[in-house]
């Protein structure tokens, strides 16, 4: 019989446990930046819970109060799931992690739990598992984003802003807006810059420092990574160098 354990990462065990993603490359810039980011977020109520099967990582969930979330969504008194991932399927581990978050929200007397999904990338959780766990879709945004919520009562639904096109207009130069919430942001940034350099395009990086700045500047609900060039949206997730060049060439 498999031994299942949920381990909550905290400041005391962070060095030993670390984050789930990129754990095979603990010396990489992305992994180091993610752990530094976690250190600053844990005192804001962020929870990072790893599911272990027979003492080996099998999945994780990361969630936080909406007022500290890295997702561009409005609402009050919700928890927001940033990430959910399992590498062992068919055993109910994803649902177990989701239900852990829901129970925590109840204990904190929150109004519910929010998640942002997108069918076009693995950088966001899958919508289907949340529908299976009784979440409902309440809003959508450009580029395939969906807003799902599990509510405990009759509180107002969370919602996306609706000024996505206007957010692109100030950025004529190639601009990368990012936070360190995801360890793959560093790789995504590096690939975009390499592609841009081969086309003679200089990239500017904006490291978002606060939720207020995130809500104001992010070109998508995803929040942690966005690329804009000539006031056109390029990507919210990692591209290969070749793909980055292809998308930039279309605007030259």
From TrEMBL:
PROSITE patterns: GNAT (PS51186). Gene3D superfamilies: 3.40.630.30. InterPro entries: Acyl_CoA_acyltransferase, GNAT_dom. GO terms for molecular function: acyltransferase activity, transferring groups other than amino-acyl groups. It comes from the Bacteria. Residues 1-170 form the N-acetyltransferase domain. This is GNAT family N-acetyltransferase.
